[in-house]
Write a structure and sequence with these properties.
Order of helices and strands: EHEEHEEHEEHHHHHHEEEEHEEEEEEEE
Radius of gyration: 22 Å
Strand content: 25-35%
Distance between the termini: 20 Å
Low-confidence stretches: none
Structural class: alpha+beta
Largest sheet: 10 strands, antiparallel
Helix content: 10-25%
Number of helices: 10
Shape: globular
Number of strands: 19
């Protein structure tokens, strides 16, 4: 079954006013357009453009009540400014946290809730802009200490904080994170000194500080960001963010794919509540070297990005010229989004034609999906094999 879907971009303040419209060939609303959601998540379920094709369901949230839960959420994300620092729980942490907060009697919409559902929320981002800038995971504490000393090592408060990064790396990073987010009055002096020094400094770390200070003046996340890896993705690169990874998208346009969950533990760069003990219990403090996801090429014209979770995988299909068609398998219900040209999708029982900016749900009974076009680009999200 093929079902055409659509949605209205969400107008979060950090969104671009032009990037999504330029990608999909739509008319800008004039407001920020941050995320276009294509999935069944009740926060912004995709509309079904012809409800008769889906048994009368008006959107994918209602459709999934009978068709089964869609385990992933596909988005187009356009950040004109930085998002909050955040991390997501594992499946076990999400279940335990959700059950605990239910037992405590917290209402589903309570601002005290950390866990809105019992699901994990790993995610990946496929970069479309050049570059797509992000913060991702902790870097080696020695590198963070060196960055702090280059920027403002002459300031006593900064020098004292930098010294806490010595010793066991994971313990040092945990200690520094708890202190920065813990509300001690001395934190402000460190933030102010780092921001002041970055005004006239060169380099990536100074650029990060200036960007974050402009968006979130005085926020301890400005200094916490110097403990993280700054990543510049190029078009076609994909970054995977597993459970426990602290991250923030800074600017850029991309296709995002994640498990369908609302569970977010924030770590700064936000006016919203930060539960420091819960965040720290979820974070993975192991330093890591960030590299783009491995790009698999299962067939001509097909690039595939496969994470280590069952919820989702992403395929980018490029047809035209020497590749007049491409075929992908469907291990479950898929969502397909055309971002360039025109494509025709054919399955075992039907077909649909999509132009730039159009999307459709494809149910698993179509078996395999063959994509034809004079020239076109299609993103396809499915459950993982």
């Amino acid at each position: 079954m093929f079902v055409r879907i659509g949605n209205t971009p969400r107008d979060y303040a950090w969104g671009s006013t032009t990037a999504i419209a330029q990608l999909l060939g739509t008319t800008p609303s004039g407001a920020p357009e941050a995320e276009l959601w294509l999935g069944a998540h009740p926060g912004s379920p995709a509309r079904i453009l012809d409800p008769e094709d889906a048994g009368g369901a008006a959107d994918l949230a209602h459709w999934s009540e009978t068709a089964g839960r869609l385990p992933y959420l596909l988005k187009v994300l356009a950040a004109a400014g930085p998002l909050s620092l955040q991390a997501h729980p594992s499946s076990a942490q999400a279940r335990a946290g959700f059950e605990r907060e239910n037992a405590e009697g917290l209402a589903p919409d309570s601002p005290e809730r950390n866990y809105k559902d019992p699901f994990h929320k790993p995610e990946m981002i496929f970069a479309l802009s050049d570059p797509f800038d992000a913060l991702c995971g902790f870097r080696e504490p020695a590198d963070s200490r060196a960055a702090l000393e280059r920027l403002a090592g002459g300031d006593p408060a900064v020098a004292a904080f930098a010294a806490t990064l010595d010793g066991d790396p994971q313990q040092a990073l945990r200690r520094a994170t708890e202190w920065l987010l813990g509300g001690a009055p001395e934190v402000a002096a460190v933030v102010d000194a780092v921001v002041e020094a970055a005004r006239t400094a060169d380099g990536v770390d100074a650029d990060t500080v200036r960007m974050l200070a402009e968006a979130f003046p005085g926020d301890p996340g400005i200094v916490l960001a110097l403990l993280l890896n700054r990543v510049a993705l190029r078009p076609g690169d994909a970054l995977y963010l597993p459970a426990g990874n602290i991250h923030a998208y800074l600017r850029g346009l991309g296709v995002e794919l994640m498990a369908a969950s609302d569970n977010v533990l924030r770590g700064g760069l936000t006016p919203k509540r930060i539960d420091v003990p819960e965040l720290v219990s979820v974070l993975d403090f192991r330093p890591l070297a960030v590299t783009p996801m491995v790009r698999e090429r299962p067939a001509p014209g097909v690039e595939e990005f496969v994470p280590d979770v069952p919820d989702f995988r992403l395929m980018r299909v490029e047809v035209g010229g020497d590749v007049p068609s491409a075929t992908v398998d469907l291990p479950g219900t898929a969502i397909a989004l055309c971002t360039a040209g025109d494509v025709e999708l054919r399955g075992a029982t039907g077909s649909v034609r999509l132009s730039r900016g159009e999307a459709a749900v494809v149910t698993a009974d179509e078996g395999t999906l063959t994509v034809y076009a004079g020239a076109g680009t299609l993103f396809v999200a499915t459950p993982n094999r």
